[in-house]
Design a protein that fits this description.
- It is a single chain.
- This protein has 213 residues and is α/β, with parallel strands linked by helices.
- The chain has 2 domains: 9-55 and 107-207, no CATH class; 61-105, no CATH class.
- It has helices at 75-87, 91-97, 122-127, 135-150, 170-177, 195-207; strands at residues 9-11, 14-16, 22-24, 36-38, 45-46, 49-50, 60-62, 68-70, 103-105, 180-181, 184-185.
- It has a 3-stranded antiparallel sheet, with no helix packed on it.
- Strand 7 (60-62) and strand 8 (68-70) form a beta hairpin.
- The relative contact order is 0.20.
């Protein structure tokens, strides 16, 4: 077995409990294994970053649990299936499906956060509304925002030889954010949204959580 330096660390993914308090999960290892777990606590103060998709990028469902109204396809096979289904829909049916009075945002769309994103879990991404957005179009952008706004490196946890390097914008973001955390929120919509209300709700929800930090 290769010796591990006493200064070696491994990044542990940040998680949140039901009360919004941060926590980390790790496993025990033998005393001879010197690699330490690195847990990066987020600041409590928040600067809301609200990502608004194009209107066709929101997953919609019919009101009163009557099924999906609009679910942009992910991947080639889903795209073929959606195109085939669309050819058999008449104008009257499409009018019902896209009537904002009969539809609402569906927050339960596909959402999967990679293990390499240490600031975020899939459950937390869904809580922030990511499941309401088209996965193929917007989740890569949201993940990059999460890294750029909350981390110092382009590929957190990876060695420099694998392409990991300090983010050039981190100095500006650190200066602007100070001791604040900017978690990207992603509200979907089926009509023009009230951005001021969305921002106020995001700040209120964060600041009413127990101050566990």
């Amino acid at each position: 077995m290769t010796d591990v330096l006493n200064t070696a660390t491994r990044r542990v993914k940040l998680q949140f409990d039901k009360q919004g308090n941060p926590f980390f999960e790790s496993v025990k290892s033998p005393d001879s294994f010197k690699q330490r777990a690195l847990c990066v606590n987020p600041p409590h103060n928040v600067i809301p970053v609200i990502f608004v998709p194009g209107i066709m990028g929101t997953n919609l469902k019919l009101a009163d649990n009557k099924g999906a109204a609009w679910a942009p396809p992910n991947g080639t096979l889903e795209g073929i299936g959606a195109a085939t289904k669309g050819t058999f829909q008449d104008p009257a049916e499409r009018q019902v499906l896209f009537d904002p009075n009969n539809t609402e945002v569906n927050p339960d769309g596909p959402c999967q956060v990679p293990d390499s994103l240490f600031w975020l879990t899939t459950a937390e991404a869904k809580r922030r509304g990511w499941g309401a957005l088209h996965q193929d179009s917007y989740h890569p952008i949201l993940q990059q925002l999460e890294i750029s706004l909350n981390d110092q490196y382009s590929l957190p946890g990876r060695p420099q030889a694998h392409g990991n390097h300090p983010l050039p914008e981190i100095g500006m973001l650190s200066h602007l954010a100070g001791s604040s955390s900017p978690p990207p929120q992603a509200p979907g919509y089926n009509r023009p949204p009230d951005y001021a209300s969305i921002a106020a709700e995001a700040v209120k929800a964060w600041n009413t959580q127990p101050r566990a930090l």
